[in-house]
Amino acid sequence: MYQRPLSRRTFLRTGAGALACASLARSQAVAPPNVVLILCDDLGYGDLHSYGSGIQTPNLDRMAEEGVRFRQFYAASNVCSPSRAALLTGRYPTRVGVPDVVGAQDLGGLSLSEKTIAEVLKPAGYSTMCIGKWHLGSQQAYMPTKRGFDSYYGIPYSNDMTPSVLIRNNAVIESPVQLDTITQRYTTQASDFITRSKNNPFFLYLAHTFPHIPLAASPAFKGKSGLGLYGDVVEELDWSVGQVFQSLKDNNVDNNTLVMFTSDNGPWYQGSPGRLRGRKGSSYEGGVREPFIAHFPGRIPASSRVLGGRVSGAVASTLDLLPTIAGLCNAPLPNRPLDGEDIWPVLSGKTETVDRDVFLYFDSWNLQCARLGKWKLHVARYNDYAFSPDPPGGRLNLPLVNPELYNLEADPDESLNVAAENPQVVANILNSIMKQLPTFPLEVVNAWNDTMSKKAFVQSDGALPMLLPE
């Protein structure tokens, strides 16, 4: 502390003052940023006001106005567990042992050989907390506190699974869970963590339980939206986002915190995919394209010339979050090849596209679609779009004799198949698929060959190529 305060002008004109200011500027430039990742469960592409919904989401609107909102952001799966596995590892769920939903009684989960975002950030000095839905294994070895998180508070799987339990770290603290207050309690935990961690870099993974069914809202929000319980739940989630931002501001860390908001897959029975075709459990766009908003004052530029803020048309994915966060936080990447790309150049406004080969759409072990630039190619599809993988009568993944090609820039609802007019595009994407398939586990290769071998459903001269394992 200075014994005799100096005026700002006098301080700046002295050599010591200039040196101190330069040092301060350098320290601010290299200060590790905090990261808050907010993930909703089953929120549809069309469920936010900034994405065309009638549901009022003013805090997310403001986040988009001050940051960037993506039009073409994807989950790496159309259901919960695989999507979360990909988000936390930067690798396709078929690579990390989570091709399907992990049941409450299952003994396994996210492969213990994989590193999560939290595990990547720990060596860089980060405090970490997971709040909300985990769904990557409920046995102790697979729980958040064993996967890089210092603490955990939440429901370890979907809120429709039993037993209904709320866990703090590794202990059950409530059963059954009182769902009408769970968003409020998650938010309190998030604010408390920010307050506790404000003097060190931190990573907060806030994975909301809602709007996965069964739905519930607190008394303060029940009936408030005028759009039914679903609208009430989404408006309470928006309130939670506002509370997180207020906590960041109250603790003077708002200007050094990257906040991101998205969802794990498309809407289930309720909610809206916007104008997109398909819902949760489908490989059409409505099952996997998600809202994504990112905010970082001074680092992610907004656009004052565009109503609603800057909108990016870049094709990006939850796979990209780990490499992006690691790069921003100067943390070493895992020693396994990642499927995601560092999208910080897009977030920061330096580039407009993400440099990647193809983005693959899996359903369980089955590769069904691939996207390259503006083009999306469907190569296989289930004979039944039921969410459950084992409905009565069985569910078959069948090859499309003639793959379907859609120009998603001109036709985001996948209503006009333009494969016949673009044979070279179809050939290029198929070639990319065949090059990538051998890099996946044998189960993926076998699933592909099994699908393509269904001769009873395809013409022998039109079948897609099979891949023989080495």
Strand content: 15-25%
CATH architecture annotation name of the largest domain: 3-Layer(aba) Sandwich
Measure the end-to-end span: 69 Å
Described by strand count, sense and barrel closure, the largest sheet is: 10 strands, mixed
Structure class? alpha/beta
Helix content: 25-40%
What's the arrangement of secondary structure elements?
Layout: H1 8-13, H2 15-30, E1 34-40, H3 58-66, E2 68-74, H4 80-89, H5 117-121, E3 127-132, E4 151-154, E5 166-168, E6 171-174, H6 182-197, E7 202-207, H7 228-250, E8 257-263, H8 285-288, E9 289-295, E10 310-317, H9 321-328, H10 344-347, E11 359-363, E12 366-372, E13 375-382, E14 397-407, H11 423-436, H12 442-452
Parallel strand pairs: 1-7, 1-8, 2-10, 3-4, 3-7
Antiparallel strand pairs: 2-9, 4-5, 5-6, 8-9, 11-12, 12-13, 13-14
Structural description of this entry:
By secondary structure, the protein is of the alpha/beta class. It folds into 2 domains: 31-347, Alkaline Phosphatase, subunit A; 359-452, Arylsulfatase, C-terminal domain (2-Layer Sandwich), CATH 3.30.1120. 27% of the residues lie in helices and 19% in strands. It has helices at residues 8-13, 15-30, 58-66, 80-89, 117-121, 182-197, 228-250, 285-288, 321-328, 344-347, 423-436, 442-452; strands spanning 34-40, 68-74, 127-132, 151-154, 166-168, 171-174, 202-207, 257-263, 289-295, 310-317, 359-363, 366-372, 375-382, 397-407. The protein has a 10-stranded mixed β-sheet with strand order 6-5-4-3-7-1-8-9-2-10. Strands 11-12-13-14 form a 4-stranded antiparallel β-sheet, covered by helices on one side. α6 packs parallel to α7 (228-250). The chain is globular, with a radius of gyration of 23 Å. Mean pLDDT is 90; it is low at 1-28 and 388-392.
